[in-house]
Design goal:
Shape: globular
Radius of gyration: 17 Å
Largest sheet: 2 strands, antiparallel
Distance between the termini: 31 Å
Order of helices and strands: HHEEHHHHHH
């Protein structure tokens, strides 16, 4: 692995560790049942991985509980849920056994992007309400999506010595519709007035399973068409 890539991975890993340690130090929870439910949902949806055409990477629905935690939970809980999605998605039924550095890097990337998305959604003067949930969660999802894609594209650029923009565009093309569906589902559940309790998982789980199945079929058809 090129030294530049190792140096970059080390920086991202340290930044991710800082985010996780800060979340642990400032830990707060107001609804333990909701946190446990979203954490469990995040772990499960992260196993529903979809292999992207012409890439070794995958996309999974673990970002949906992260968006829900941004709307309903604290920063600390959101970071832990995001960390869980990164780790589970990396190790669960991987075609090639991931190295420790891959697990650490992916966990760090998801922790950083989840933390950044939370800051965007809860910027001073803004807040997630039923009326504005689509717009605010859309901005949060955009921040999560762009930062996640940029961090991953950069390491691929350094390792494979390819054009950053080409890798970034390739990653984003396939993941964007999935993120959009997640925003619609989470904002819909929030704006319809569901109570912020563990019961939010009940409508979210089957909807995300259906979206994942449809998206997997779409990717397979598009990949075979190419």
């Amino acid at each position: 692995m090129p030294r530049r890539a190792i140096f970059y991975i080390s920086i991202v890993a340290c930044a991710g560790a800082g985010v996780v340690l800060q979340a642990a130090w400032n830990w707060t929870t107001h609804d333990p049942l909701l946190f446990a439910a979203l954490l469990t949902l995040a772990a499960y949806l992260s196993t529903l991985k979809i292999t992207l055409p012409r890439m070794t990477g995958t996309v999974a629905g673990g970002f949906v509980p992260v968006l829900a935690s941004i709307a309903l939970l604290s920063t600390s809980e959101t970071v832990l849920i995001a960390l869980t999605t990164g780790i589970v998605q990396t190790v669960w039924q991987a075609r090639v056994r991931p190295s420790l550095i891959q697990v650490v890097f992916n966990g760090a990337v998801l922790s950083i992007s989840g933390w950044a998305a939370y800051q965007v959604a809860h910027w001073p003067g803004t807040g997630i309400t039923a009326a504005g949930s689509v717009a605010i969660l859309g901005l949060a999802a955009a921040a999560d999506y762009l930062l996640d894609s940029l961090l991953v594209s950069t390491v691929l650029c350094l390792i494979e010595e390819k054009d950053l923009f080409a890798i970034f565009r390739s990653c984003n093309f396939w993941a964007l519709p999935y993120y959009f569906a997640g925003v619609v589902i989470v904002s819909g559940v929030v704006s319809l007035g569901f109570l912020p309790s563990w019961r939010i998982v009940i409508p979210t789980l089957p909807m995300m399973w259906a979206v994942s199945d449809c998206y997997r079929r779409f990717v397979l058809e598009m990949g075979s068409a190419e």
